[in-house]
Amino acid sequence: MSDIYKLSEIWIEKSNVANTKIVEKSLDSTQLSTDEVLLKVDSFGFSANNITYAVFGDKMGYWGFFPADDNWGIVPMWGFATVLKSHHGEVKVGEKVFGYLPMASHLVITAGKISPTHFFDVSEKRKSISPVYDNYVRCATDPGYQVDREAWQLNYRPLFMTSFVLDDFVGEGLVAAKQPIKQVILTSASSKTAYGAAHLLMKHKQQRGLSYQVIGLTSVSNQAFTQDLDCYDQVLSYDDIAQLGKDKVSWVLDFAGNKSLLLDLQQQFADNLNKLVLIGSTDVDAQQDKPEGHLDSEFFFAPSQVKKRTGEWGHAGFAERYAKAWQSFALHMNAKVAVAEYSGAKAIEALYHTGLKNKLNNLEINVLKF
């Protein structure tokens, strides 16, 4: 087998995320340093979440994972990879891992913090915002891995991880609230992270001893699809927010990033808006709109909640709880969406631009391969 590998990468201009280019490189695997491992990217998922990584690349540090150069970056993805070459004695050629990968065909990492279930990229060049993103899970010992459900894991696992810890965070807050919360409202309700969280919020109502309503807000065009997901008590279009009333004590979980909408909701509920939590920015166009007004909000950073619960439950306890929640959600969603496959750098680049236009098909989960 040749020691020279051909690599493909898709670069995004940091100052203009609509500008992309495909970059081809060669890598000589004999030049790997001690503890370095060459991963071949087998497949990865793609959703509005990856658009958030690009739009907030500078603000949230997402460009630091897989540096390209000063002006260009590589968008992170979640996916499966196989070890092609290893200069670390505890990482074997041929083993399959799941983790954070570049929009590229290959990745070189420096393996460290090895355990039977995972290892980390400890490379100094990787400027990471959380160790959660540096963790590569070994599929052979992963309780959440199912070989026949890889497409689902690619698309939902990273998003559902946010859904899982967001539900945990919200549940803790609702139980502790001084006055009963009557509504939990999720914007961009058709997005995968939103309806994953909604599914869990619905599922856990009774065991929390609470009686809140889970309400989704989405565009008119996505309203029927979102209602058919059966993850919400009610789904309304953005034009119908007046139906939410103004007297019910509410939480708003924002996945859209539309400040105008949030200002309207804040004004509508006034003192009855108990908490406004910012999670994502699926509405790319709205990022150009800068209306005046202050949002009384807080940002939810999923890795912080993961770290908190891992510390309390242990890695095994966290993995078991997550796997149980994931299996429930996967069963619920089994017949509701189809798999769409994209192959080659040009097809992947084109799908990225579709995502930038907020035109991804909600009825499909995407599997991408170089």
Task: Please explain how this structure is put together.
The structure is a single chain. This protein is 32% helix and 28% strand. By secondary structure, the protein is an alpha/beta fold. It is globular and about 70 Å long.
Keywords:
alpha/beta; 2 domains; Rossmann fold; Quinone Oxidoreductase, Chain A, domain 1; 17 strands; 370 residues; 6-stranded parallel sheet
List the helices and strands and how they pair.
Elements: E1 4-13, E2 20-28, E3 36-46, H1 48-55, H2 57-60, E4 72-73, E5 76-86, E6 96-102, E7 106-112, E8 118-121, E9 135-138, H3 150-176, E10 183-186, H4 192-203, H5 205-208, E11 213-218, H6 220-228, E12 234-237, E13 250-254, H7 259-269, E14 273-278, E15 298-299, H8 302-333, E16 338-343, H9 345-356, E17 364-369
Parallel strand pairs: 10-11, 10-13, 11-12, 13-14, 14-15, 16-17
Antiparallel strand pairs: 1-2, 1-4, 3-5, 3-7, 3-17, 5-6, 6-9, 7-8, 8-9
Task: Tell me briefly what this model is.
The protein is an alpha/beta fold and 370 residues long.
Largest sheet: 6 strands, antiparallel, barrel
What distance lies between the first and last C-alpha atoms, to the nearest angstrom?
20 Å
Q: Characterize the overall form.
A: globular
> Structural class of the secondary elements?
alpha/beta
CATH-defined architecture of the largest domain: Alpha-Beta Complex
- Strand composition percent: 25-35%
CA-atom Rg in angstroms: 21 Å
Output the CATH class name of the largest domain.
Answer: Alpha Beta
What fraction, in percent, of the residue positions are helical?
A: 25-40%
What is the string of SSEs from the N terminus onward?
A: EEEHHEEEEEEHEHHEHEEHEEHEHE
Overall mean pLDDT stands at: 90
Low-confidence stretches: none
Number of strands: 17
How many helices? The count is: 9
As laid out across the biggest beta sheet, the strand order is 3-5-6-9-8-7
CATH topology of the largest domain: Quinone Oxidoreductase, Chain A, domain 1
Number of domains: 2
CATH superfamily of the largest domain: Medium-chain alcohol dehydrogenases, catalytic domain
